Amino acid sequence: MGSWTFTATFQPLFPKEIYMPYLIHEFNHSFIDHLLDDETIAQQLKASAPILLKTEEAPMKLEGYGDWHSPVNESLVRASVVRYMMLW
Q1: Fewest 10 Å CB contacts: which of 3, 33, 48, 87?
Q2: Backbone phi, then psi, for 40, in 5-degree steps?
């Protein structure tokens, strides 16, 4: 990932306001990614997720989201980040 900010002596800075959301996002994958493996949860989302994906199908494919599973998974992760950040 790297650092985007540095001190006057070129030491990298990692301000939590910038890096914490990324860290929380990646950490939340360990809690969220397995949820769609549960057939009950997947069935509940499977009805509407492809419809939502269809509305933005071309741009989503450019981002690597070719099926409904990936954008739903990322949406759940991002929602978890927002909830966590509200408590932070």
Answers
A1: 87
A2: -65, -45
Q: Could you tell me how many helices (H) and strands (E) the chain has, helices first?
A: 5, 2
CA atoms within 13 A on the CB side of 84: 16
CA-to-CA distance for 75 and 77, rounded, in angstroms?
Answer: 5
Q: How far apart are the first and last CA of the chain?
A: 23
Cα–Cα distance for residue pair 16/23, rounded to 1 Å = 9
Note down pLDDT in tens along the chain; length 88 residues: 678 889 999 999 988 888 899 999 999 999 999 998 999 988 988 888 888 888 888 888 898 888 888 889 999 999 999 999 898 7
Q: Please tell me the pTM assigned to this model.
A: 0.77
